[in-house]
Fold this sequence. Notes:
The protein is mainly beta and about 900 residues long. It is built from 1 helix and 106 strands. Among the domains are: about 245-440, no CATH class; about 450-590, no CATH class; about 765-920, no CATH class. About 0% of the residues lie in helices and about 45% in strands. This is Autotransporter domain-containing protein.
Amino acid sequence: GLTVAGGTETLSGAxxxxxVTTVVQGAGLNLPGSIAGNLxxxxxxxxxxxxxxxxxxNSGTLTASNATLHDLSNTAGTATLTNTTAGALTNADGAxxxxxxxxxxxxxxxxxxxxxxxxSVSGDVTNTxxxxxLDGATVGGTLAAQxxxxxxxxxxxxxxxxxxxxxxxxxxxxxxxxxxxxxxGILSGAGGLSVNGGSxxxxxxxxxxxxxxxxxxxxxxxxxxxxTGSISSSTAVHNDGQLSVKHSNDLTIAQAMxxxxxxxxxxxxTTVLTGANSYSGTTTVSAGTLQVDGNQSxxxxxxxxxxxxxxxxxxxxxxNVTLADGAxxTPGGINHAVGTLTVNGNLSLGKNxxxxxxxxxVNIAGGQYNDFVDVxxxxxxxxxxxxxxxxxxxxxxxxxxxxxxxRLYAYDGKxxxxxxxxxxxxxxxxxxxxxxxxxxxxxxNLVVSDGTLIYWDGGNSANHxxxxxxxxGEVNGGxxxxxxxxxxxxxxxxxYNGTRNAxxxxxxxxxxxxxxxxVTVSDTNKAGNVANVTIKGMQFANSDGNMYVVTGDxxxxxxxxxxxxxxDGTNEGSTITADLxxxxxxxxxxxxxxxxxxxxxxxxxxxxxxYVGDTTISxxxxxxxNxxxxxxxxxxxxxxxxxxxxxxxxxxxxxxxxIDGLGSLTQQGAGTTVLGNTNTYAGGTNITDGTLQGSTSxxxxxxxxxxxxxxxxxxxxxxxxxxxxxxxxxxxxxxALVAINHDDSQFEGKTTVSAGTLNVNGSLENSQISVVxxxxxxxxxxxxxxxxxxxxxLAPGNADTVGALTIKxxxxxxxxxVLSGTGTGTLTxxxxxxxxxxxxxxxxxxxxxxGAANINGASVSFxxxxxxxxxxxxxxxxxxxxxxxxGKYLDLLTNITKNYLFLTPQLFYTADDVDLLLIx
Length: 920
């Protein structure tokens, strides 16, 4: 052997001795050559291009560059390897080992170890304590994080697999090339994780924010059956392989997941997906519950739910959905959270599957109180339907469902499996029956019947069964006669599943589905017998795009509230329209009846009504008239409008009742509608045709969009606080003053002041103003081009405030019109010269015109506020026009002559001003 006990020795040859080469502390060795045996160094050793045939042990300072080593044990001190080939690397507690480039067979660390610069370790890297940094390194085996911590640098790193419990920080991406382990530590940092092959389980709650990537052939599992195992919601997930969740508790994945891979719900807990996912692989629910609350329309792969597993949610599934026997469908969410689940593909329910619904409101598809499933493809029914009553639901009493129709499914394609669907645990009251209704196309409903729900089947006897009473298993609708009494061909009504036909059951609730038609009410049947048609209410829910018309004899109310629903409980139901061309007669009800229009569709009333109660619009549109002269309601009863009220008459209609609510009002017909009360509706006012007339208190609190004629007619002063827009006509009638105090520059139509005063303190700058004889335009705001007719008055300022009225456009004052203003004794601080003399400007009313002012033959009436102190060589400007003054005023009427005998008022004209001079 060789011992270097002092100084520095250089070995440049190919030494063949096999003993130990020892470098003691304080000595040095340079090895550009080679030695055959082991190397033990406590001093300073540099191996540049050389090699060590045996193992190396370092406790001093070791530097190796482009060298060849066998095993290295860094027991203390510092070792630095650059582009060096080595065997097993061991770095002890307190020691530092830095490796850049080169290769090794394995690495074990308890101190500080850095593998960088393309370094390659063919085996495992085991960190028992201390710190390992991988920065641009490749590890063929497992990174075993048994203790301490590790860091992946910005240059990223690749390892075969990841195991252990120690935490890691990712500044770059950690890639797993052949994963096969469970890692229970926590990964943090701005870097990402990529599973390029094999299967990795993350059982810790990780917080790294870089991307999570699963390549084709790779699998990433979050959790291992417990309550931990997650990734940060800040990390994007790109999945071309398989992402699996295995938790016993709830886990929410909020970020969007894309790629061509698949997703598996494998744990006994609930996984909630809230992101807009777009992965195209299969979604498998093999255990627990998958709750889809996000929009997964772009996730086009199939969703398969195994026996014992559940699918829930309020989101959208993009592909086909299949539930096996024993699987459960729970729209909304677990713990009885209600909601709507949408399936863009087909939905197939196993014959022994389970459906758990929460319901609380009839005739509404989804909404606040109902679970609902909307299937855009085909629907295959099967299994058992269980229902829980929603606490607080409008149609739940004492925990039991009231009678009515509860929508379960909508489907756009074909329906099958209806006979395989069974009713399970459903909370129903006494004296009601339950049924599953599939006889109406594109709907599956739960019917809780007390005998008052009757479906219109139309007058085609071929649909009534061979005996005219047994039905054909469908609800057909269409044209026909509505009568109460028996007679040949009068069995035009059926039950919910279309299996029994009969005449109308008096006092029932009429439902019009399927194909629309004209329904003629007849008090007289074919045998000549007479009986009134009595009703509890009606619903129109046809989906054929046509309109039901109910016409003929009166229908008689049986209760104090008559409900007419137009719609099918869905948003699409807003396109449904029905025409009530008959009278709701309430003569048989003590106190009369009120009408409630509900759901999202439109009800036309085209016959003058006689019911005496209030009218309530709880949803959709109620239209009075359809372009003709009929379609009125009692004007003494209030209208409660939370939808849309439309008036479409060709004649005059007066609504003297109060209109309240959150809804809107539309004047649509060519006639005139007069609102005669103080109304508080808040949804705005639209004038699309004809004339709408009222006072400033008639139009609630919303905006007015005027494309027809808008008339204010009142004898008491008021202000129009509703924003005004549109291109129609605005007419101010009545002797009172009406003020406009805000910006109505969006109104581009014509304004006519035909009586009283229009006081503009806001803006009508895009409206042409016409003031007729006897009327006045005043204010401190801005108006458009203005025409003052003979006898009309232009009065800038207000009664208690002098100032300027601005005209954006030309001013035309006809002969005989008057410019009326008021002056004060307050100086403005400016002067001007007239007739060679200097005049001090006084504060007074003035009209400022942005165009030309044509005034020939008009007059000026200008009075000074009582008590004002005036002097000679003072003046008021009463009119200015940037486009020039054309003509002169004919007369000047003023109290200055009477009250200030020492002053002579005189009008003075310049090219663009008219001034009132006070001359001594």
